[in-house]
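pasting for ref
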Amino acid sequence: MQLTGAVAVCDAIEIAVLILKRDLSIDNLLTEFHAGSKKNELERQQITEALAVGILRSTACPKGYPFEVSTNMIRLKPSKPLYKPYLFLLMGYCLSHRGMAVNGPLSDKFRDVFEDFVCWVFRQHGFVAEVLSIPRSSRRLPTQLKPALLLIKDRLGESGTLQEHKLNAHDNDLDVDVIATPMRGDRGRGGWPVVLVQCATGTVANLKMKMQEIGKTFVSVWEPGFYEVCAIKGGATPDDLIPLTENDWGRISEDGWVLHRMRLVHMAVNSSSRKCQLPKVVLRVNEDLKAALPNYDWRNFGKTED
């Protein structure tokens, strides 16, 4: 299951706009990408297809996509320097993909706080949501898994009893990164709707594998409570999966609710609920990503496979 090269080139173009801080036409982009070349028709077609991906992104979420894009031009929308979910996901994903890795530790930080971002997106819509993954103490949960599970059960209002003998010594998050429910349960009865999300910042194949793991381990340690039949399984990725073929999209969707870049952005910016504060750790990593931008080797994004 491979993404098309046009997606990588579109990511590169968007990063170029951020770095060069100017509007870019097709001719500008041909010069930037292919300095000294004769700007042949194949190279022009690659840029055209990449801009078409940008148009798809804009159509998917006009309010959250921070670029104005047409068939021959792309520019950053004029706005106040506020936090933009799309740019956070774009910079974080491109940091360690698209044939580059400018900063290993920063890439690790992004992977960790991506879970906090996904949790925040659910909270934006009034969900009760928690990140189960480590580190837990910074996320207002006990470091040890057992007390963390019991506190999450309490916060979500579930009535299940934790079967401690079903926990293994090496268990970390029971194959669930983010747990969310549209409202607190009543503690009297189990079976409250719950969303179990695995987060993947790697390849599409990795996302699919993680989605196939979702839920079974987590729900198996409760009796009764957290019923599998009442769970919505999901996988979250900062990658853009718009170009997946209908067949590939259908296959990955069979494993759960797919939250890719544009869906996450749509949820982040179109909330009708009371706004909740973005975790400070996400804002700090966002600033680090912006500071690292000059080192992004964006001209080579489309030249290697993920």
